[in-house]
Amino acid sequence: MKKQTNGDVEINMHEEMRRAFSLLSGKWKLEIMWLLNQRVYRFGELRKAIPGITQHMLTAQLRELEADGLVSRTVFAEVPPRVEYEITPKARGLGPTMEALTAWWHEYGRTVPVKPTSRGRQAKAVKSKQK
């Protein structure tokens, strides 16, 4: 990819795009962002909405998204505490990208092979002992 100049500063667009991709890389980040683009979610709602994600992984992914300024976390002083997650105005800028992905899926989604939807750790099947 070409290097571009911005005044006296030369910009390596390949490196810049790598930084952009890293914001959403990870097994669950795009799915989390997709859901939060629809509405505000509580932690438990997100966990139920994403089959196969562990509590630990959801927490880690949300923390990374929050650190990158893509998700905001609001804690309400209630008993028990209520925590809500929503995308930030900066993340709303990804809306056209999500719309483009939706349009692409509507056109080509049926041509994509179906993969099992289960993710994460699978419980081992317990064999019953027969006597």
TrEMBL record:
Question: Does Transferase appear among the keywords?
Answer: no
Q: Which domain of life is it from?
A: Bacteria
Any idea where the HTH hxlR-type domain is?
Answer: 15-113
Task: Read off the SUPFAM superfamilies from this record.
Answer: Winged helix' DNA-binding domain
CDD domains (UniProt xref) = HTH_ARSR
InterPro entries (alphabetical): ArsR-like_HTH (IPR011991), HTH_HxlR (IPR002577), WH-like_DNA-bd_sf (IPR036388), WH_DNA-bd_sf (IPR036390)
UniProt xrefs under Gene3D superfamilies? Winged helix-like DNA-binding domain superfamily/Winged helix DNA-binding domain
Keywords, A to Z, come to:
DNA-binding, Transcription, Transcription regulation
Key word DNA-binding present:
yes
One Pfam family, please name it: HxlR
What name has this protein been given in UniProt? HTH hxlR-type domain-containing protein
Q: Could you tell me which species this protein originates from?
A: Dyella flagellata
